[in-house]
Design goal:
With 389 residues, the chain is an alpha+beta fold. The protein is built from 13 helices and 18 strands. The chain has 2 domains: 3-232, 4-Layer Sandwich (Glutamine Phosphoribosylpyrophosphate, subunit 1, domain 1), CATH 3.60.20.10; 244-368, 3-Layer(aba) Sandwich (Rossmann fold), CATH 3.40.50.2020. Bound molecules: iron/sulfur cluster.
Length: 389
């Protein structure tokens, strides 16, 4: 998860545009938000824990002056929900200073930390991307291409360095990124809804392995690394990320009570309830229980995804396999645990057809256990907490 946004628009209030873009991407991350601006030479970053509207106000936005801006909304998938991990992250290297916002999880971050060779201030896997670019003696475009070659796993990135805006997608394209224009000025964002909100026009998706650089000379898009033979846009992007989900189980349960109030009319009725997915099962069990408590006669649950049976290593905050209800029992077992009258899942073929994309273009690993990359032995979210590199 996480939402990213970037814009280069001299003469416009780029921080305010980034703010609105982040509002549109708030559903991708609700733990922290931040904006970095550049006036060509100097980089200024404001980031904090909280929602976009809590982190920024009129006073702070008016202090962010520049020609370029990037923004980020975070949902932690590597590194704790702490101020140090709020993005954009800034890294000062011997060659340049770099700000980045990152969506996705890298699967080779330990090797990258060694290669980056400089001390990191955060415990997420994102600062290492900034460090690799900041420490590289080559010109910026070459440093970015080399960094992209080194990254394994999921990395949709926006950044600022040397008065330029850059953005790229990893070679598999796990997480989305779109390119748009606002009266000719370039805008990039995780999803086209952010372009709509700032009045920009969608031009196209950024392809896996493509690098976008915007500077005084215009916008350059290059295939900096070859697209993987098997590209792998996350199939969950099509149905799971379209609404807020709280990262902590306690907040989730509280959120359910605030979000759902069964109507008195459910009493005595046979209900069909549609949900987008079942991961641990605890949320679903609570909803089914609330409906029976309100007097429902039957609750028939239909799920618009197949059973989730394996963890995500590419930036979706799922449970570990032993916490996943469908990994340890069959459909009847899941039905019994959540207490529904009946339960049925959408088939993998049905979900695939609904995306209108070929199987070869998507990652479906948490449904099939067929991962498009090597996966790390230890992918615990907090594995860098005690010893930042
Ligand atoms: S493992 Fe699942 S959630 Fe993760 S990128 Fe692949 S399809 Fe998406």
């Amino acid at each position: 998860m996480c939402g990213v946004f970037g814009i280069r628009a001299p003469g416009r209030d780029v921080a305010r545009l980034a703010y609105f873009g982040l509002h549109a991407l708030q559903h991708r991350g609700q733990e922290s938000a931040g904006i970095a601006v550049s006036d060509g030479g100097r980089l200024t970053v404001l980031r904090d824990l909280g929602l976009v509207a809590q982190v920024f106000d009129e006073r702070t936005l008016s202090g962010l002056q520049g020609e370029l801006a990037i923004g980020h909304t975070r949902y932690s998938t590597t590194g704790a929900n702490a101020w140090a991990n709020a993005q954009p992250l800034l890294h000062h290297g011997p060659t340049r200073t770099v700000a980045v916002g990152h969506n996705g999880n890298l699967v080779n971050v330990e090797a990258l930390q060694e290669r980056a060779g400089s001390r990191l201030a955060s415990t997420s896997d994102s600062e290492v991307i900034a460090a690799l670019v900041a420490n590289d003696e080559r010109p910026l475009t070459e440093a970015l291409a080399r960094t992209m070659r080194l990254l394994q796993g999921a990395a949709t990135v926006v950044g600022l360095a040397e008065g330029k805006l850059f953005a790229f997608r990893d070679r598999h394209g796990f997480r989305p990124l779109v390119l748009g224009t606002l009266d000719g000025d370039p805008v990039v964002a995780s999803e086209s809804c952010a372009l709509d909100l700032v009045g920009a026009r969608l031009e196209r998706e950024v392809r896996p392995g493509e690098l976008v650089i915007a500077d005084d000379g215009g916008v350059t898009v290059t295939q900096a690394v070859p697209e993987a033979q098997r590209s792998a846009l996350c199939i969950f992007e099509f149905f799971y990320l379209a609404r807020p989900i709280q990262p902590e189980q306690g907040m989730r349960e509280q959120g359910i009570r605030m979000k759902f109030n069964p109507l008195a009319e459910v009493a005595g009725k046979r209900l069909v309830v549609v949900d987008d997915s079942i991961i641990r099962g605890s949320t679903t069990r609570q909803i089914v229980g609330m409906l029976f408590d309100a007097g429902a006669a039957e609750v028939h649950l239909r799920v618009s995804a197949p059973p989730v049976v394996s963890p995500c290593f590419y930036g979706m905050d799922f449970a570990s396999e032993d916490e996943m209800i469908a990994a340890r029992t069959d459909v009847e077992g899941v039905r019994a645990e959540i207490g529904a009258t009946s339960l049925a899942y959408l088939s993998l073929e049905g979900l695939q057809a609904a995306t209108r994309r070929p199987e070869s273009a998507l990652c479906r690993a948490c449904l099939t256990r067929d991962y498009p990359t090597a996966v790390p032995v230890n992918a615990a979210k907090d594995r860098f907490e005690s010893a930042p590199a």
